[in-house]
UniProtKB/TrEMBL annotation:
Catalytic activity: ATP + H2O = ADP + phosphate + H(+)
Keyword terms: ATP-binding, Hydrolase, Membrane, Nucleotide-binding, Peroxisome biogenesis
This protein's name: Peroxisomal ATPase PEX6
Annotated source species: Capitella teleta
Keyword Nucleotide-binding part of the UniProt annotation: yes
Keyword flag Transferase: no
Chief subcellular location: membrane
One Gene Ontology term, aspect cellular component: cytosol
InterPro entries: AAA+_ATPase, AAA_ATPase_domain, ATPase_AAA_core, ATPase_AAA_CS, P-loop_NTPase, RecA-like_PEX6_r2
Domain named AAA+ ATPase: residues: 243-381
GO biological process: one example: protein import into peroxisome matrix
GO MF annotation list: ATP binding; ATP hydrolysis activity
A Pfam family recorded for this sequence: AAA
């Protein structure tokens, strides 16, 4: 086994010499297998961007000379790379056989975990099927690491039950005695691994937003569940020719587009991959298109999955009008369209887009089979809807008996968005905390629980300014009517 990073040198000539020396040493042990890890780094310059055809030509010439080095016994070359697209064209064409290793599906992960946990003492609350559902996107090495990390959590849990610090002998006795691993040990390990993985590459994971956290929007909830939940519950309909479509949320800012997408993923037990349009754009030629391909590959590997494109108008503006001389945005839009069309072959990857300006999107995105279901998320302009939002936001608050949310809502303007109501409830809680701190400092009470009063909401209302003006609301209503007429 050889890591190709170790073969790269300061100059092409030095790299060629290292490759030749490695192959010659392998021929001594023929018949043998020479495994080259990270083959994609060969054939590139030191920066890793431009191709170095001299190294690629020398590599294949050295491989061809193997027949003379070892005419009777073969030396089999097996190379690995994160993606075949990362290889230079010269290196890619030389390999006769290409094998794409898929990320394990849920059923495969179930089999792997069953095998890994067969000899481990696990409590009855450990469900291998549940663990397989929670580990979407994990490969074999990740699952091995998961079991090891869960063991660490189990031993740490037991060590905390021992008063004082444990001696080395106590630790050895604990390890020899063994520990029964709980489901909580595995959940802690999964959360830790997903958090680290998400921070590094944006790995998908299931959010924790419920329908109760989303006030109002009953019609929108029903429409989006018909698009996403129906194919999951009745996959036979897909086989009969039902094409699943993408969903586009549009409307004023702060109306709950991101929150609703997370709630859908949670309620349907789907992984959630959130991408902001500007995050995918890159200064290097072709890198933006590559970023889009990686997003969809990541979604397919973590299926069932919801891909949420926020600020879609910045990623896919109307082609021919973006103003960039190199046509970068036009190529980005074309790549996005190609990936959306490819999603029709997958029955468990769902696409949700969100934008405040649907009029700026390329019209091709809104054609059937892509973002052909447009859902308008406007403000809640009636008291019942506003009350549902406030109740959803305050469902974990402790309220004074005299606090009436109906009275609070009756004082609210009719042009408040969901984000405005969030600010209102947050400020009310802050007022309650300040009042409680003052009472504690005066020593008048000992109870540290915070209860929100009617006066706290009144104080928050006095400083609340709507984030969307009446003129902007008129514009969005006009835009909604225009899109409805086009459909």
């Amino acid at each position: 086994q050889v890591n190709c990073h170790d073969l790269c040198a300061e100059t092409s000539a030095a790299t060629e010499a290292r490759i030749k020396n490695t192959v010659q040493r392998a021929s001594v042990f023929a018949p043998c297998v020479l495994q080259l890890h990270n083959i994609h780094v060969l054939g590139r310059d030191r920066d890793g961007h431009a191709e170095d055809p001299r190294v690629a030509m020398a590599f294949w010439q050295i491989i061809a000379d193997l027949e003379t080095m070892s005419p009777n016994w073969p030396v089999v070359i097996i190379a690995t790379a994160p993606s075949s697209r990362q290889l230079t064209s010269d290196m890619h064409e030389g390999f006769l056989h290409h094998v794409h290793l898929e990320v394990p599906s849920e059923s495969v992960r179930t089999s792997i975990l069953t095998s890994l946990l067969a000899e481990e003492p696990c409590s009855s609350d450990v469900s291998v099927k549940y663990l397989a559902q929670r580990t979407a996107g994990f490969v074999l090495g990740d699952l091995y690491a998961l079991v090891s990390l869960a063991k660490n959590h189990g031993y740490e849990r037991l060590s905390q039950l021992v008063p004082g610090s444990m001696t080395y002998e106590d630790e050895m006795n604990l390890i020899e005695a063994g520990v029964v691993f709980l489901c909580s040990d595995f959940i802690s390990a999964i959360d830790a691994m997903q958090a680290a993985h998400s921070d590094s590459i944006g790995a998908p994971k299931i959010p924790n937003v419920r329908w109760q956290d989303v006030g109002g929007l009953a019609d929108v909830k029903r429409d989006i569940l018909d698009t996403i939940q129906l194919p999951l519950q009745h996959p036979e309909l897909l086989a009969a020719g039902l094409r699943r479509s993408g969903v586009l949320f549009y409307g004023p800012p702060g109306t709950g587009k991101t929150l609703l997408a997370k709630a859908v993923a949670t309620e349907c037990s789907l992984n959630f991959l959130s991408v902001k349009g500007p995050e995918l754009l890159n200064m290097y030629v072709g890198q933006s298109e590559e970023n889009i391909r990686e997003v969809f590959e990541k979604a397919r590997s973590a299926s069932p999955c919801v891909v949420f494109f926020d600020e879609l108008d910045s990623l896919a503006p109307n082609r021919g009008r973006s103003g960039d001389s190199g046509g970068v945005m036009d190529r980005v839009v074309s790549q996005l369209l190609a990936e959306l069309d490819g999603m029709n072959k997958s029955s468990d990857v769902f696409i949700i887009g969100a934008t405040n300006r649907p009029d700026l999107l390329d019209p091709a995105l809104l054609r059937p089979g892509r973002f052909d279901k447009l859902l308008f998320l406007g403000i809640s302009d009636d008291r019942d809807s506003q009350l549902k939002i406030v109740k959803a936001l305050t469902r974990k608050f402790r309220m004074q008996d005299s606090c009436e949310l109906e009275s609070v809502v009756s004082q609210c303007p009719l042009n408040l968005t969901g984000a405005d109501f969030y600010a209102l409830c947050s400020d009310a809680m802050l007022n309650a905390m300040k009042r409680k701190i003052a009472m504690l400092e005066e020593g008048t009470i000992e109870d540290q629980s915070v209860e929100v009063s009617q006066e706290d909401f009144s104080g928050a209302l006095a400083t609340l300014v709507p984030s969307v003006s009446n003129e902007e609301l008129v514009h969005y209503k006009s835009l909604q009517r225009q899109i409805a007429q086009q459909k």
